[in-house]
Amino acid sequence: MNRLACFAAALVVVAGYIACSRVLAAGPGSDSGIQVQFSDEGAGPREIEDATAAAVTRDYGIAWKSVETALSDNRTEALDAGLIGFARDRMANRIGDQKRSGMHTRYVDHGHKVQATFYSPEGSTIQLRDVANVEVQVFDGDKIVSSENMTRSYIALMTVTEDRWKVRVLQEVQ
Amino acid sequence: MIRKFLLATAFVLVCWFAVYAANAADLQVPQQMTAGTDLTLHPSGSGKATLYLTGPDHVEKRGIRLGEEVTISGSALKASGYYQVMIKSGSDQSASRFFVSPAEPANENFLARPSRVPVAKNDVISGVAFVFDKYRNLVLAPVPVKFSLTVGDTAPMTRTETTKNGVAWVKLGSARKAGAAQFVAKVDDAEVRRVVQQVASDPCNLRMKAERRDKNIFVETDPVRDCTGNPVPDGTIVTFTEVDSNGRSTVDARIKRGIAQAQLPASDNATISVASGVVLGNEIHLGGGR
């Protein structure tokens, strides 16, 4: 009887832990090929459903892939796959400047550790804190001007659009 | 002989260093700046060089002269984040990184849900405010946001919440009075207003009367109101059901000018009931000596 009670208690603790925190990962085999590790521990006020967590993980990877492609090829339209609103406008500005200066930027993405910090009560907006490992190479024509391998932190706001989550705000933080 | 050679080598090295020092650009850049402010650089050295600036929404390449002041306009430094400034002169290159922080709060995005809500319900209205500076950077420093919800001339419900990572949110109950509620989020002087239509809740004390007229039974409700006295909107369906020995007859009628009316088939011994949604009203027995 005692053993049964202990087992039941352990089961409750494990189930509680699983309910409170979750880590998802989208790796090189995912839609974008960008590695995203997602955790929703401490996010609120709304609970993040499994399907939402999976969709956000997938779509955040897609957003970074679209940034990578757009900055490398100087193609603004590539941003539409993952960015919207201010985030898209900013990246489009940068691409316009790159085109005018004959420059481009290559991102070598080594993965993102993403923590959901806020999920709005009505379920339309999610805020993420991202620690990204990226190598950024800036080119002037074919010549490399700078190359940095760094860890960068971002705050992202993603909103639901017609068919997926898209990044509306992407802001680098200290 | 060896002494002369060493002296000559030292002389060449000193000359080379002097030329190098004269040309090399030394970059002094503040570590931290506020969005939208100008940056002035004083690259040391002499001769022509190329300046590269890369930031979250800006990339710039321009020719400069070392030793002369270079100004980067605040319009190039609007987006919060890290910037890199590089000066390239021949094979020499110097680079510096600096961080641009958001400016003061100036704008907000306010999401209010839902747009239509029944009266007198707890925690049914949610408001989320995102606080931005005038350059659309999310202001990450804590900022108080005042939320208020007012219907007509009633006293407003107010709550002040402090932003966390640029976001503040609130959940409020609906008022007891139906009408267009003004839901406002205010940060300093920036105010955003949304309208939440508060409508009467489910009917309360649904009552009807029945009367025989010719070959029919005429049924009519009292004015249909919710539990806080707000009239239930016209168009709401009220269902009248008559059960007698022939079976069951049902009529769906819409509330019109506050009441619902219907005609049911005449019967010598019938039980008539009324309902709207999940709310049941009174029952009336006609005929059969009752």
Q: Main beta sheet of chain B: strand number and arrangement? A: 5 strands, mixed
Strand order of the largest sheet of chain B: 1-7-6-3-4
What class do helices, strands and sheet pairing of chain A give? alpha+beta
Number of strands of chain A: 6
- The general outline of chain A is globular
Protein described:
The complex is a heterodimer of chains A (174) and B (290). Chain A has helices at residues 2-20, 50-73, 85-101, and strands spanning 23-26, 36-39, 103-119, 125-140, 143-160, 165-173. The termini of chain A are far apart. Chain A has a 6-stranded mixed beta sheet. Chain A is an alpha+beta fold and 174 residues long. Chain A has one domain (23-173): Nuclear Transport Factor 2, Chain: A. The longest helix of chain A has 24 residues, at 50-73. Chain A has 3 helices and 6 strands, in the order αββααββββ. Chain B has 290 residues and is mainly beta. Chain B has 3 domains: 2-101, Immunoglobulin-like (Sandwich), CATH 2.60.40.2950; 105-199, Immunoglobulins (Immunoglobulin-like); 203-287, Immunoglobulins (Immunoglobulin-like), CATH 2.60.40.10. Chain B contains 1 helix and 24 strands. In chain B, the strands form 7 sheets. In chain B, strands 1-7-6-3-4 form a 5-stranded mixed beta sheet, with no helix packed on it. A 5-stranded mixed beta sheet of chain B has the order 9-15-14-11-12, with no helix packed on it. In chain B, a hairpin with a 2-residue loop joins strand 17 (208-213) and strand 18. The longest helix of chain B is centred in the N-terminal third of the chain and has 22 residues, at 2-23. Chain B starts with a helix and ends with a strand. Chains A and B meet through helix 3, strand 3, strand 4, strand 5 and strand 6 of A and strand 4, strand 6, strand 10 and strand 13 of B.
